Fold:
Amino acid sequence: MVRIIVDILQLFIFVLIAYSILSWYLAYARVSYDSPAFKVNRVLAAICDPVLNPIRRIVPPVRIGGVGLDLSVLIAFVLIEVVISVVAH
Structure:
C-alpha cells in the first residue's frame, strides 16, 4: 500500500513538471488556442490546479522586474518529497 502511494506521488511530480514546461512554452510560443498543446495544458491544469491553488493563495507570485514568478510548483515539489520521505520510512 505504501509503495502505491509513493508511486502516485512520484507520478504527480512528473505531471507537475510537464505542466510547468508546457505553461512556459505556451507563454512564449505563438500557438493557436485550438492546438493540441492547449488541450493538453487544460487537462494538466485540471489535475494540478487543485493542489497548486491553495499554495498560490498562501504564497502569491514573487515580482521580479515586470514578471511574476510563481513559486507554487516548487513548494508543491518540496511538500510532495517530504510526504514521500515520511511515508516511505
